[in-house]
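R.M. (postdoc): so does anyone remember the format we settled on? I'll just put the structure tokens first.
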């Protein structure tokens, strides 16, 4: 039988597929990304990156690149000025009030990056670390057996079959991988239609920057030049979207007939909300929009998908190295997170609907958002900072471990920096290095560091590669418990 060409084939070189490729390459997993389009050919939408994504990017040494790229991005001056004049950090259903409670995040604010820029940075990391990224090639079929998956890939020269140990569908909401794997995608039909375009707008005085809601729907004018509308209960056209359709929609919502020229793109999307029935079928997995789609209120789709990729990467790498045991925790941990995001985007779409009843609901909601507990709940939901994995009786376990300065034998560092090569981290804060000695038989897979941190949540922290706490030990540390945790998460001790 023919051996596999790659350990993992990723269908789709969007933000999630590329992030997953970067993750897998940290563990030496041979990875092919197959992307249907040419580089930069995707819709140039701008993507907001919220707190948890930025925290993750810091733990992968990508944050500085993203921040520098945002600084170079033209057209965001208006957005930056607005930030200086408000204490809010983000919106819920167009109410710019998030972050006004007691939530404190590692990163001071969200980032805005054009999709193309994000993909350029991730492609550079993925290819520099050894992933193969093939553009202009489409996954059109797959068949799996006990040893791997045969994937049919079509490009300008015809079709070929590529064999991989595992396939991950990161190929968006209409995922071919999901369909070929027989995974259901149940959900709700659209109730609203949005049109969006990037171009030059004439009539700016009457259509100022920002979000406007009225009895006909929403009109939004973004700092990067995009305009968008949202209209309810009007049916979804089945014809390809056109500039005329966007212009007509703007007129229906605002009463203004605009001139929209030099158009770079125009698109249509809805609030159709769907969640995959399962995230894995044998050797085929799905991540990002292939697993969940929702109305892009609050900019959470890529953010959710990045966390999928970072949750999956190290587990899939372990499976490729002969330890498939953790793979099912991917769905168990990530599907409930997507369910929560679908809940909040559905609620936002309801709160955005025109009409006097919703006017009253919004007014009441705005009052509720003045309460810290309510503001914190929704802020954490949008920022992704409310995630806790598993149901350990220990309330610390399953939570993201905050960054902090650390004094180690090798000098000062930060917790985030110690996670940058994707290895799990055993942080021994006992002052005696006993946990480091206990973990020595796992030192080929687990970074062990003795450090000082008087404010730490426990004397010993076992941190997963994605930054979440696998196990916490209080002094006196029970070696047996630590050995069990190391074995459960990272395999048996070295002989
Ligand atoms: C208007 C709008 C604004 C948004 N704003 C935000 C935001 O601010 N923040 C945020 O986090 N999210 C936002 N989102 C959501 C975000 O764009 C998506 O969640 C994100 O792009 C999902 O990434 P992905 O890689 O999973 O899928 P996609 O971005 O859809 O990428 C899938 C890739 O797979 C390729 N592909 C498809 N089929 C195949 C195939 N058979 N073979 C090979 N390749 C294939 C596609 O060409 C594409 O490049 C927004 C969405 C919309 C519509």
């Amino acid at each position: 039988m023919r051996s596999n060409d790659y350990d993992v084939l990723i269908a789709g070189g969007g933000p999630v597929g590329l992030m997953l490729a970067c993750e897998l390459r940290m563990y030496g997993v041979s990875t092919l990304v197959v992307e249907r389009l040419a580089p930069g050919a995707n819709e140039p939408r701008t993507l907001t990156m919220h707190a948890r994504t930025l925290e993750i990017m810091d733990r992968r040494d990508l944050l500085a690149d993203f921040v520098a790229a945002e600084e170079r991005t033209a057209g965001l001056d208006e957005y930056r000025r607005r930030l200086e004049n408000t204490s809010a950090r983000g919106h819920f259903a167009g109410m710019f009030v998030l972050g006004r409670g007691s939530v404190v995040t590692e990163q001071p604010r969200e980032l805005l990056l054009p999709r193309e820029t994000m993909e350029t940075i991730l492609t550079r990391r993925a290819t520099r670390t050894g992933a193969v990224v093939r553009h202009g090639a489409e996954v059109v079929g797959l068949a799996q057996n006990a040893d791997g998956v045969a994937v049919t890939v079509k490009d300008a020269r015809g079709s070929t079959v590529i064999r991989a140990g595992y396939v991950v569908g990161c190929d968006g909401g209409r995922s071919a991988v999901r369909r070929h794997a027989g995974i259901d995608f149940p959900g709700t039909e659209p109730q609203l239609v949005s049109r969006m375009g990037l171009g030059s707008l004439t009539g700016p005085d009457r259509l100022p920057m920002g979000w406007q809601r009225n009895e006909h729907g929403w009109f939004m004018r973004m700092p990067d030049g995009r305009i968008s509308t949202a209209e309810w209960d009007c049916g979804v056209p089945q014809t390809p979207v056109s500039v005329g359709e966007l212009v007509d929609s703007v007129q229906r919502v605002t009463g203004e007939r605009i001139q929209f020229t030099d158009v770079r793109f125009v698109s249509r999307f809805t609030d159709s909300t769907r969640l995959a029935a399962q995230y894995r079928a044998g050797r085929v997995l799905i991540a990002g929009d292939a697993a969940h789609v929702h109305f892009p209120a609050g900019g959470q789709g890529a953010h959710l998908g990045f966390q999928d990729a970072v949750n999956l990467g190290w587990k899939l790498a372990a499976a490729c190295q002969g330890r498939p045991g953790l793979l099912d925790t991917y769905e168990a941990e990530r599907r409930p997170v997507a369910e929560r995001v679908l809940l909040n985007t559905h609620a936002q779409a309801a709160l955005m609907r025109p009409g006097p009843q919703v006017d009253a609901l919004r007014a009441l909601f705005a009052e509720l958002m003045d309460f810290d507990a309510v503001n914190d709940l929704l802020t954490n939901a949008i920022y992704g900072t409310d995630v806790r994995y598993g149901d350990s009786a220990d309330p610390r376990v399953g939570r993201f471990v905050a960054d902090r300065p650390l004094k180690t034998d090798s000098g000062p560092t930060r917790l985030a920096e110690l996670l940058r090569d994707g290895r799990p981290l055993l942080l021994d804060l006992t002052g005696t290095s006993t946990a480091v000695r206990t973990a020595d038989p796992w030192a080929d897979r687990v970074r062990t560091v003795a450090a000082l941190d008087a404010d730490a949540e426990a004397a010993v922290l076992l941190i997963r590669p994605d930054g979440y706490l696998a196990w916490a030990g209080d002094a006196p540390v029970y070696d047996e418990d630590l050995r069990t945790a190391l074995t459960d998460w990272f395999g048996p001790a070295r002989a």
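R.M.: ...and that's the designed sequence above, right after the tokens. Also worth knowing: The domain at 6-185+274-383 is CATH 3.50.50.60 (FAD/NAD(P)-binding domain). The chain has three domains: 6-185+274-383, 192-270, 405-490.
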